[in-house]
Amino acid sequence: MSEPADLTQRIERVAARIDPRLSDHDIERLVIATRMRGRRRAVKRIGLSMGALAVAAVALAVFGRGAKVPWGGARGTSVAEQTQAGSSTPVAHPLRFADGTLATPLDAGDVLVVAESAPGRVRVDIRRGGGRFQVTPNKQRTFAVSAGPVTVTVLGTVFAVRRLEDRVGVTVERGTVRVAWPDGVHVLNAGEDGWFATATAAASPPAPAPASKPGDESAAAHKAGPARGDNTVDELLAAADTERAKGHPEEAAAILRRLLQAHAGDRRAPLAQLTLGRLLLLDLGRPREAAQVFAELRAAAPDGPFAADALARETEAWSRAGRTAEAHARAVEYLRLYPDGNRAAAVRKFGGIE
Amino acid sequence: MTAGHDTELRLVSTTSDDRTLGGIYRQYGRYVAAVILRLQGRTSDLEDLIQDVFLEASRGIAHLREPAAIKGWLATIAVRTVRRRLRRQRTRRFFGLDASAGYENLVDPAASPVDRVLVATIFRLLDEMSVEDRIAFSLRYVQGETVDKVAELAGCSLATANRRIARALAALEKRMADE
Q: In this complex, is the C-beta atom of A112 within 8 Å of any C-beta atom belonging to chain B?
C-alpha cells in the first residue's frame, strides 16, 4: 500500500488525464440542445402553473365545504390512473402538492397513490415500486408514506421509499424521517438508509430490526422496537446497529457472527446474515468473505426472501474480489433464476455480461 | 480569459439570451464539462448535466454582479448540479436500481492500463462514500482545487471541508489497502 502523499499524487496525476474531449462541434450541439431544453421547460412550467391553478380552485371549492380533498389527485387514484385515464400501461409521473411537495415514482410502472389528503395530514401509499419524496416543511400537517405495514412519517425532508415483496427500503437525503412497522420504530437521519422486513405470510411476522446500509457516516440513535420473542436477538441486533453507527464495522460484524452462531434458527437470522455480508463487502472491504456469507445465506434458504438479493451481492462480491469466473457464473445463475430481478442490470455489470 | 471579456459577455447577455448562452458555452463549456466529469465520473450523464448547468446559468447570468467571477460561479452551479445527481444515484444504488458505472474509459485513450485501473478503482470507491465527502475529496484531489476553494464550491466552512477531505482520504486508503 502506498503512503498517503503518494496516493494523492497518483490520483492527481491520473485525474489530469480525465478529459471530456468535447469538440467545437459538440459544444455547438450542446448549445442547441440546451436552448431546446430551456424552451421545453418553459412550456412545461406554463402547463404546470395552469394545472396548479385548476387544483387550487377545486381544493378551495371543496375545502370551503369542509370536506377532505387530495392535493395531487383524486383520493385512491394512482398516478398512472390520474395521468393516463383509460390507459392500461402505467406511466410514472410525479405527484405535485399545492405546498410544493413532490412525490416522484422511482421507475416506470411504480405506482403512488394519494390515500389521504386533509389540511392536517397527507398520506401517500406506495402500491408498487417506490418513490422519492421532496417534502416542504410544514408544521401544520404531517406527511406520511405507507408501503404495506411500514409507514414513514416525515418531519420535512427529502427521502425515497421502495417497496419489495418482502421488505421496504428507506433512504434519506436530507432531514429526518420516522419509520414505523408493526414491531417497532426507527429514526433515520440524512445520509442513512435501511431495509425493513415486512411480513410475507402470517407465519413470518415482520422482523423488528432494520437492516441499515453499512457505511453511513452519521450516527442516529437507533430505537429498537419493543422486543418480541427472543430478547437476546434484539439486543444483539441493536448492539450491531450501535457499533455500525459509531463507525465500528468490525465490532458490528463480530456481533452479527455471534448472533448467527447462537440463534441460527431465528427468523431474523437471514436479515442479520445479509447485513453481515454487506458490512464485509462495503464497509470492511473483504469481498471474499462477503461472497461466502451470501452463498451460505442462499444455501440455507434458496427460496427465501433474501435469496435473490444474496445472489446478486455474491456476484458483486466475487467481482470485487477479482474472481471474474465466479462472478460470471453467479451472474448467469441470477439471470436464469430472476430474469426480471431488480438487480439484473448490476448483476450483468459485475458478471461481465453486457 | 480576461475580466474584460467576461464583462463583454454580460453586456451581450442583456441584449440576446441566445448569444449569451452560446458565448458562455464556447468559453467555459469544456471547463464545466471537466468539473462535472471529475466529480461525477460518468460519461453517459455528462451532456445531460452540462445542459442543466448552462440552463441554470442562462437564467442567472443577468443578475451576476461580478462578471469576472463567472468561471467560479459556473463551477458552483456545476457542483450543486452534480450533488443532486449523486444523491439520486445513491438512492437508486441503495435500491438496486443503479448499476455501477464502468470508469475504465474515463481517462484519455493514451493512458496506461495501470492508470485506467487506478481511476476506475478510485471512482468505484468514491461511489461508496457519502456525497458530501466525495465532492470535497474530488474537488481537492481530482479537480485539484485548494482547500479554500473546496470550501467555497461545496458551500461549507474550511474546517468542514478539511474534515470531509480527511475522512474520504482515510476511507480510500483503507479500501485500497484491503484490495
A: no
Residues contacting residue A69 through CB under 8 Å, at least 6 positions apart: A58, A59, A62, A63, A75, A117
Q: Which domain holds residue B24?
A: 1-99
Q: Are residues B92 and B129 in the same domain?
A: no
Q: What is the CATH number of the domain that holds B83?
A: 1.10.1740.10
The complex scores an ipTM of 0.80
Is B60 in the same domain as B114? no
The band of A52, judged by pLDDT with boundaries at 50, 70 and 90, is: low
A93 in B contact zone (CB under 8 Å)? no
What pLDDT, in 10s, does the model give residues B19-39? 478 888 889 999 999 999 999
Which three cell numbers, joined as nine digits, stand for B156?
461549507
B86 in the same domain as B17: yes
Name residues 110-129 of chain B within 8 A of A (Cβ): 110-111, 115, 118-119, 122, 128-129
Asked which of B99, B134, B150 is the last residue of a domain, the reply is B99
Q: Any chain A CB within 8 A of the CB of B179?
A: yes
Is-above-0.80 flag for pTM?
no
Is residue A83 pLDDT above 90, yes or no?
A: no
Residues A280, A306: Cα–Cα separation, whole Å: 17
- Do B92 and B11 belong to one domain? yes
C-alpha distances (whole Å) from A246 to each of A213, A224, A225, A249, B33 are 13, 16, 20, 8, 38
B42 and B89 in a single domain? The answer is yes
Give chain B's domain count: 2
Lowest mean pLDDT among A124-128, A192-196, A201-205: A201-205
Q: Are residues B115 and B171 in the same domain?
A: yes
| B-chain residue closest to A287, CA distance | B179
CA distance A331 to A84: 37
* Residue B132 and residue B48 in one domain: no
pLDDT (0 to 100) of residue A1: 43
What are the tens digits of pLDDT across the range A207-244? 334 444 433 333 333 333 322 334 577 777 777 776 77
The residue among A146, A168, A136 whose CA lies nearest residue A76 is A146
